[in-house]
Each structure stands twice: as structure tokens, then as C-alpha cells.
Amino acid sequence: MSSVPSPSHDQINNDLLRPLLRTSWKFYVVVAILGAIVVTALAAWLTQMYLGFGISGIRWPVYWGFYVTSFVFWIGISHAGTLISAILRLVDAGWRRPVTRCAEVITVFALMIGAMFPIIHLGRPWLAFWLFPYPSERLIWPNFRSPLVWDFFAINTYLTGSVMFLFLPMIPDFAVVRDKSTGLRRRIYTLLALGWRGTPKQWHRLETAMGIMAVAIVPVAVSVHTIVSFDFSMAPVPMWQSTIFGPYFVAGAIFSGIAGLLIAMAVLRRALHLERYLHPIHFENLGKLLLVMALLWGYFVFNERLVTYYGNEPSEMAVFWRTQRESFAPLYWTMVIANFVLPLVLMGIKRFRTITGCVIASFGVVLGMWLERFLIIVPSLGHKYLPYSYGTYRPQPVEIIIAGATFAAMALLYVFFVKLVPIISIWELKAGDHHPPVVTQPATEEHRLRELPS
Amino acid sequence: MTLREPQGHPEHGRGVKAVYGLYPDGHAAQQAVSRLHAAGVLDRDITIQSAQPMEDFEFGHRDKATWMWWIACAGGLIGMLSALGLAWLTEMSWPIDVGGLPIFAWWPNLIIIFELTMLGAILATVITLVVTARLGRGSAIYDAEVSDGKILVGVTNPPDSALANLEAALTAPAGAQLKKLS
User: Fold this and answer.
1) Residues A111-124: pLDDT tens digits?
2) pTM for this one?
3) CB contact under 8 A, B129 and A209
4) What's CA A240's distance to the chain center, in Å?
5) Chain B contacts in chain A segment 123-142 (CB below 8 A)
6) Which fold has domain B16-60+139-181?
7) Are B125 and A141 inside 8 Å of each other by CB?
8) Which residue in the set A149, A198, A205 is minimally distant from B146, CB to CB?
9) Mind listing the pLDDT tens digit for each residue in A254-276?
């Protein structure tokens, strides 16, 4: 039997506060590189605003391209955190403790990035207020039964809930940083700690609040991606109007979310030297979850494809064949390999279920899920019921830059967060007494005999 | 046991008299609390602070009762009623006929009602936490060593006549470190 000694409270404080209190040159290099990519994307967006939406590839009949693909993708990634963290809290999974905050942060930032895309997609974002219902000379009559109104309420509720779910357990950690720092940093963390003292009453209230939030946030998270799926399934477009879209989107969102979380954990482990806290068992557990979701994803795709094929409705079959053996086939089969075959092999075979294996599978899933969103949107919009509405879509540089840079934006936000807040919840780690997982060798007769009292 | 004045700490209560002990573990802190009880100090006069929840010990179960779940339900109810009102008012103010569907349609409105119900519950929970956990108001005693894992047990504004008894109770457990504010 082998085990790693538990880190002491001092070690936990030192290890987890180190990134906050010390800044190496690597931090500035990473910020400069990521910042440059984000600034490039902002410049591209400004160019689009200045020159007009015509510089993008979005035109009739494919009105939704990279921007809406990215919107759906990032909302999906947001399911990594709060939902997974809430479920693990509800079932009181002890191994969640070092993982939850890494996950919850992904939710908040992914939602913020995702929610930007409808604004980018407006073309003239300064006129966004035209969407609001108010008595104006233009006599705007908005349809309050539109799925886009549902999006507004669902995403904002989820964002508010997720920010609270992230912030509340950070309060005791802010108090630790307050006590360990001086000067301006101390004043800032004193404000953030909200006078936290750690009395039994405060601990009980905090834990009760987290319990309630966990119960509330799980159905909200499920509703958010169901509602995003309604943006599609409420429209009479081939292969969109499907009752399976709700659970299909939710499963896909959790799938991509877990992949995002695994990548983030691996990077944090390496960059911040968190080997003592993020153990291979955490990756293995999440890897198994990734495998389950890959199988579920495959099941949903099979359902969607079989029902369409059996129905043999001409307009749907046209889209069906476009994706499976015509112009979109390379993307479609890449998606199937990345989302199904790769995780099945890497996570299904125990030997490959290592940290490296998890990361490779996760990169595949992130790519595959982005392609899935693209393949839901573009082939259907480009081939509706009548030939007059057939068309194609070619993404232009401005869209590619903006969509690509969101990954850099996510990484940049994450880097800033890690610089400001302990990325692993210090108090939860201490509360769990952090017994590292023990790897037990399989028992043999000899072992058992040796263990018998003489 | 050591007896020394606490080092200056901006979080300490100003003008507050207090005596407290810092303990290396929950067992010692529990002993201190029990001895304070034996010395006639009431629960409400004992301050306990720790860097993590201490649910394995009796003192960690103080002040556990809360109405937070009920308040969250009430918040949800308020959210639900707000959603109903909002949906009714907006849809009736801009009555568009979409394919002959009712102007106020329950199915699409259920989504908004659900989201605002949950939002109401979440906000009510957060507000209840801030108010009942007295966040933002601090406390008379605090010691930064709590963040290092020490557990603070103390009494604020003790009568001078009881001070010797309290010090004896607080210094009895192993590893106790007594501090005084005056």
C-alpha cells in the first residue's frame, strides 16, 4: 500500500497562496501573449462594426455562422463547473474538494464569453436596446413568447447563480489572504472577506447556503442548455425540429464541460505545481465521467440519425446526406472520431486513462463539440425546404479571429483569476482533512496470511 | 502554555476587553469550551473561531438552527409571482397574434416562471446568508492565527472578578496560548 502524506495546514496555505503573493516573469509573458490575441480580436470586432457586417461570411440563407456556433459552444462549456460542482456537493463526494473551484470558474467565464456572442452577432451592438420593449416611435412590438426571451432569463439566472455559487465559498479564503497579506492587497481582501471570522454560525450558514444553491443550480443548469436547444428545435428547419434536442444538448454540454475542466486542471497542476492536491485519481474519476458522457453522446447521435433516416423526409434527408457523405462529411466524421472513438479508446482502456490520456481525449472532445454545434447550424440553414433557400457559408477572417480568440480570452480570464483567488478552496481542503487517495494493491493469499495476527 | 499580549492587528476590536485562547486542535478547543461552561459562562458569551467547519465537535454545532430553507422557498415564491406579473403585463401590453396562439400562453411562460422562481430562491439565500451570518459586521475578537489553523475560544468583556477563573479555564487544555485584549 502506498500513500502520500497529507499536507499540513501551513503547507496548504503556502502552496495555494503562493500564486497570489508571488509573481514570476512567466505570468507577464502569458498575459502578454494572451492579451495580444484578445486585443487582435477586439480590433477585428471594431473593424466589423466600422465596415459593417458584410465583412463576415454571414449572409442569406445562413444567418447563423461562427458566432452562434461559438455562443452555443461556450454556453455548453459553462456546464463544466457549477453543474458538476453542485452534483458532487449534493452527493458529498469527498474527492470534489480540490476540483470544485477550478470548475466553477469555468462556468462564470464561459457564460460571460458565450453571452457576448449574441451582441457580436448583432452587427451594430450599440442598437441592442432596440430589442427592449419600451414605448418608442418605432412601435416595436416584441414577441415575449420567443425562445430568445427564454435565453435572456435562463442565461442571466444561471450567470447570477453561478457567480454566487463561486463567490460564497471564496469568502473564507479571502479572509485567509487578508490575514496573510499587507498594504493595499490587505485592504482589498478585507473588503472581499466581508468581515469573515469563521464562527460556527458563519460556517453553518455558509454550508446551508451552499446546499440550497446546489439544489437550485442543478435544474437551472439543465434548463439553460435545454433552452439553448429550443432556439433550434422551435424553428421549422430540417433536422432541427426534434424532441430529442433538449437532452441531447444538455448531455453534449456536460460532455464538453468535463473536457474543459480536465484541460484546465491539467494546466493548473503543471503550472502551479499542485501535484499534492490534484491527484491522478481526480483525473481518472473525471475521465470515467467523460467516457460515460461519450457513450451518452453516441446514443443521442444514433437516435437522432436513425429517426431521421427512418422518416425519410426529403428535406431532412438532404441535410442528413450533406453531413454524412457530401460537403460536410469530413467535418462530420472528424466530430464522430473526436467525440466518440477517441474518448472511448483513451478513457475505456485503463492503461490510457492517465493525465496525458485525459488531456488528449479532452482536446478531442472540445474540438468535436465545437464541430457538432457548427454541423447542427450551418448544413440545416443552408438547405431548407425549397431550392430558393439553398445556400452556403464561408467563414471570413473576422469571424475566425473572433471565435478563435475566445479561447485566449478564456485562458486570460483564468490566469487573472488564479492570480487573485486561491484556485483550490483552502477551507474545504482543510475541512476534508485532505486524506490523499490511497492506492491499494490487490490482495493475495500471501498478503492476507501476513496480516493475520500471529 | 504561553501567556502574552496579542500583537497589533487591525482587525482587533477597538476598546474591547477580552480574553481568549488559541488551540492547536478541536479537542483542546472543546476542552476550553467545556471548562468555560463549567466556570458558568453561557454559550452566547463564548466566541469561537476556526479556519474550517468543526462539525466533529460539540462546539461546532452551535447556532445550527436556521430558517434559510424556508426563506429560500419564500424567495422562490416571490420570484414566481414576479415572473407571472411580468409575463402578464408585457404580453398584454404588446399583444401580438402569433399563429393564433393565446396572447398569454402558459407553456412558454412556464420557462420564465421557472427561471425567476429559481433566481428568487438564490437571491433570498444569499441575502439571508449575509444578514444572519453577520457578514460585513466583523466581531470584537479576532486573531490572524486562526488562518494558520488555530482555533480561537474566548470571552468578550468579562467581569474583572471572573478573569482569573476564565484564564485558568482557557489555559488548561494542552497547547493553549492565552491572549488578552484590554
Assistant:
1) 999 989 999 998 88
2) 0.87
3) yes
4) 23
5) 133, 141-142
6) Alpha-Beta Plaits (3.30.70)
7) no
8) A198
9) 999 999 999 999 999 999 999 98
